[in-house]
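Teaching assistant here, posting this on the class forum so everyone can see the example we discussed in section. The complex has two components, and the goal was to see what a joint structure prediction looks like when all of them are supplied at once.
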Amino acid sequence: MLSTAWSLSPARSVPLEDKAQSGLQHIPSGGALALHSVRSSIFARGRRDAANSSSNADYQSAVAAYNAGRFTEAAASFSQAAHQSHAESQYILSTMYDAGKGVPQDDAQAARWERTAAELGHVYALANLSFRCSSAGDFAGAFEWCQRAADGDLAWAQYNLGLMYQKGEGVAPSEAEAAHWYRLAASQGFADAQQRLADLYYLGQGVPRSYTQAAQWYRRAAEQGSARAQFQLGHLYDVGLGIEHDYTQYRYWTRKAAEQGHEDAVREVNRRDYRDP
Amino acid sequence: MSVTTHMPAEIILQPNPNAADLAEKRERLSAVRIALAEREADIAQLRSQLKVFEVRYLQRVGVLYAELDELAARITELEVNLYDSDSARRRAQEARQRAQETHEAAFGSEQEPVEFDPSPSLKTLFREVAKRIHPDFASDEAEQKHFTLLMARANHAYSCGDAETLQRLLDDQLEVNAAMAGGGADEGDGVTLLRLVRQIQHAERDIAALDREHQTLLASEIGQLYTGAEAASHEDRDLLAELAAGLRERIADAQYRLEFVTRQVGALGR
């Protein structure tokens, strides 16, 4: 029932695209709750935060250059800030090396800066590093870094951590843990996590079976365009599980799923059109 | 022992080969002791600057970390209500413990003054040191100045219960006195030279130790923060204010999240 973990595009593309859309502005990455970051003294935290301050002059000029499309100049300034332990700059620099933007494409440099930023607790870097480990077949490493990113409240990482628990990849399998992490990501509006959590409620895996809960989470995912959630929600309307039977709703959601090419939904729509045009 | 003792008196009055050497060593000792005194003053100043900075940091920034961690702990505790699991409970416990640690670090910074109760052996050691380096017993003004410095160091070591430093001070004096005792009542040039060499070595060793301490202080977390704050202030920036502003934003985020999770728990209860 599970497709490959990491079926989603990795985090690396997410933040940069976000930035490209909004214009790479001042991005305070420290906003997440650093629940599990390395236990460090109150002074060490201040120093780390100070080093990552957005007032870093090289970082500011790098952002200005980036927003003006002068990527070579931006990379040079990010590199300056990166050498001063500015985690956000290290992270962006790693994505620039990855994409060959403003610098020649260089996997080794990308990995190096990604790791440095990750070690400073930068959540996107943690997520990317986790993905890099996973791609290299190091599932234990992928799990460990992903856990730190998830603790940093990154929904993508919480969802993937749930997948790892469900598959038992890099960690002993636990549906209860999977449900826990799916829920955290789902509460943040992460559609795939909402659909996975709904599946667990539907099947009673890791949580007490509840069609009501399943229907609620399927609906939230379906409204965000998840084909499987739309099909499942349609099915629940059809049989009246956890939700009042509603033929119109059943037809509506099944068709939505079929429009997206969901195979069971397409079959269902074809059968219904034959039987019930 | 040296060639000079066999020489005629007339020649001794002439500047012998050792006299220039002795003068050079005396000058060297005086220079090294001045440098040592300056280092002592520098490091005392740095220590007190760091102390002041530490208090300011805790009052302006540390308390905000405590507030942030308290919110984080409450969020994870609510998440246990929301969805009970071993890992949720463990997370909540860890977050709560961290919040407590941060709270203690931020608010419990004023350590309870510990009652000073030196052991008898430490008292004896201190007395042994003090009677050898008491400024009143110095033979000249330069030595008196130096003894004053040593005495301050001994007092500090004694009040910290630092037996190691006291023992080193004592060893130094014993070594110097042993060199002098070898020459009898009348300190010959050879003996003086040896004494000066030892004293120069002691001072240089102490300078090196102070330099190391200086580096250690600056390399510490608080030291680096302090350096950063100083550098920022040269650019007319207030690093602590910047840190505090960043933390207030994160506190606002955490408060929003706390309200969000509280609503979720409420919805679950219905």
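For the discussion questions: Residues 71-83 of chain A form the longest helix (13 residues). The radius of gyration of chain A is 22 Å. Think about how each of these relates to the inputs above.
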